[in-house]
Amino acid sequence: MDSLLFLGFFSGFVGGFAHCSFMCTPIISSFKDHSSNFQSLQFFYHFGRMFTYGLLGMIAGYTGSFVNTVGSIFGIQNIIRISVSLFLIFKGLEILNLFYFKKLFYFFDWLEKKGFHFSKVLIHFKDLHSIWKYFLYGIILGLLPCGLSYTALITASSTLHPFKGFLFMFLFGLGNIPALWLMVNFYNFFIKKINKLLYKILGVIFILFGIYFLYESFSKFF
Questions:
Q1: Rounded Cα gap, residues 5 and 78, in angstroms
Q2: Does residue 109 carry a pLDDT above 70?
Q3: Shortest CA distance to 21 belongs to which of 169, 153, 192?
Q4: What are the C-alpha distances in Å from 172 to residues 63, 109, 122, 140, 190?
Q5: What is the pLDDT of the chain when averaged over all its residues?
Q6: What is the pLDDT of residues 28-57, one digit of tens each?
Q7: At what angle do helices 38-73 and 147-156 cross, to 10 degrees?
Q8: HEC profile for the chain?
Q9: What is the C-alpha separation between 57 and 163, in angstroms, rounded?
Q10: Contacts of 88 (CB under 8 A, 6+ apart)
Q11: Which sign, positive or negative, has the C-alpha torsion 92, 94, 98, 103?
C-alpha cells in the first residue's frame, strides 16, 4: 500500500481513539433514541461521513496537483510534499507539547471550538422518517470543523491526485470507525484512560511520517 494511504488509515485509527471518539460519540449516541436498529443507523452515518471526507480529499488532491504544477513552472519542485511534511512535523511537535506557534494552529483551534454549533443543522432533518436520514447526517457532519480532519486534508493534498486524495480521506474515515463503535456501544473506560497516551502516539506518527516524506522529497534531487 502507498505510504500516504497507509498514513491515512493509521492516523484515522489512532486518532479515532485519541480524539474523534470523544468529539463525535455524543452525536452518534443520540441516534439510539431514534430506532431499535441502532447498528444499521451507525453504518449509514459512517458511510455518509466517509463519503464527505472522500469528496473533500478529492478536492484536496486536485488542489495539491495544481499548486505543485504551478510551483514546477516557477522552478520549485515538490512544493506540496515538502510543505505537508513540515506541517506534519510541526503538528506532531505541537501534540507532544514541544512546539506551539499560536498563529499556525489558532485557526484550527477556533474552528473546532465553534464546531458544535454546526451540529444544529441536523434539527432541520429530524422529521425525516428514513434510514437514509443518517446517511445525510453523516454527509453533513463530515464537514464538522475538526483539527485532526483538517490535518488529514492538508496531508491528502500531497497525494497530488483527486482519486488518491479521495481514497486517503475515505481510509481516514474508515480508520475512525473502530474507536467510535466501541465508545458508542460500550463506552470503553479503558480507551478513555489511555486517550492522552494515544494522542501522544499520534504526534510521534505525524513526526515520523513527516520526516520520511521530507526525505523522499529531497532524495529526488540527488
A1: 18
A2: no
A3: 192
A4: 19, 20, 23, 17, 23
A5: 80
A6: 777 766 556 777 888 898 999 999 999 999
A7: 50
A8: CCHHHHHHHHHHHHHHHHHHHHHHHHHHHHHHHCCCCHHHHHHHHHHHHHHHHHHHHHHHHHHHHHHHHHHHHCCCCCHHHHHHHHHHHHHHHHHCCCCCCHHHHHHHHHHHHHHHHHHHHHHHHCCCCCCHHHHHHHHHHCCCCCHHHHHHHHHHHHHCCHHHHHHHHHHHHHHHHHHHHHHHHHCCHHHHHCHHHHHHHHHHHHHHHHHHHHHHHHHCCC
A9: 8
A10: 151, 155, 206, 207, 209, 210, 213
A11: positive
Cell numbers found for residue 211: 520526516
pLDDT in tens, 47-84: 999 999 999 999 999 999 988 887 777 666 678 888 88
Q: How large is the angle between the packed helices 79-95 and 147-156, nearest 10 degrees? A: 160
User: What cell was used for 4?
Assistant: 500516504
Q: Flag the least confident range among 59-73, 137-151, 176-190.
A: 176-190
In one-letter notation, the amino acid at residue 83 is S
Q: Could you tell me the pTM of the whole model? A: 0.82
Q: How far apart are CA 93 and CA 83, in angstroms?
A: 15
The grid cell for 101 is 506557534
Q: How many residues does the chain have?
A: 222
Cα gap 28→200, rounded to integer Å: 25
Q: Look up residue 153 and give its three cell numbers.
A: 486534508
